[in-house]
Amino acid sequence: MARVTEDEYLLDTPVVRGFVAAVRAAIAAAASPAAACDAIRPRFAELLADPGWLPQRYQEPNPASAMGGDIGQWLLFRAGDRSLTLFALVVPSGSETPIHDHLAWGLVGLYRGAQDEEIYARDDGGALARVEARELAPGDFYSLLPPRDDIHRVRTTSPETSVSLHLLTNDTGCVWRHTFDEGTGEARPFRSGYVNVECAEP
Ligand SMILES: [Fe+2]
How far is the CA of 140 from the centre of ligand 1 (A)? Predict the structure, then answer.
């Protein structure tokens, strides 16, 4: 059974509380993850377009990053039952994430800067193949519905740091997920953590 605790608003503002309430209502009313994502899209687009709600503190890199490259993953909201998180991923200019998965559905979009994103999929033999590459500009976002789009790598191409927003239906920073070797497709256990919150379980 999932450990239930209180909701955590690391960034406790009317904007974040209003967004989370709208997301929960959309999920409760939706017949499927895809329908929930469709219903959330207008609110997510608003959040990406609003320049004022995310303090600079949550747009700073993290020199101690588990992903390398000073990449910072800042938790903004986490549901008490760990079924929903909102976080900002900060990738300095020229840095890139490992190839990784998320293991949950939700929405991902770019808030600041520019990124190249490469999307991978496993073929029948278990090998990893790059299936798509796209350039992301601020305001671009997509619904992540695993297995589609679940394995990717992002790289910041702008001179300034990029900041992307993730709304995902797990505790993405604390669950064990995977990074992948591009050549062999080998998966390795991976936990990214958050800059501003410890993960309780080892
Ligand atoms: Fe990702």
Answer: 15
Spatial contact of 171 and 78, defined as CB atoms under 8 Å apart? yes
Rounded Cα distance, 79 and 92, in Å = 28
Neighbours of 159 (CB within 10 A): 9
The span from the CA of 188 to the CA of 177, in Å, is 8
Å from CA of 136 to ligand 1 middle = 13
CA of 14 to the centre of ligand 1 (A): 27
The answer for residues whose C-beta is within 8 angstroms of residue 80's C-beta and 6 or more apart is: 4, 5, 6, 7, 8
Per residue in 17-42, is it b (16+ CB within 10 Å) or e — as a string? eebbebbeebbeeeeebeebbebbbe
137 is written with which tokens?
């500009």
CA dihedral 86, 89, 90, 93 (to 10 degrees): -150
Given a contact cutoff of 8 angstroms between Cβ atoms, the answer to whether 104 and 168 are in contact is yes
C-alpha to C-alpha distance for 165 and 183, rounded to whole angstroms: 29
Residue 40 pLDDT > 90, yes or no? yes
Instruction: Kindly give the distance from the C-alpha atom of residue 135 to the centroid of ligand 1, in angstroms, as a whole number.
Output: 15
30's tokens: 């939706």
* The model's pTM: 0.94
CB 165 within 8 A of CB 77: no
Whether the predicted pLDDT of 127 surpasses 90: no
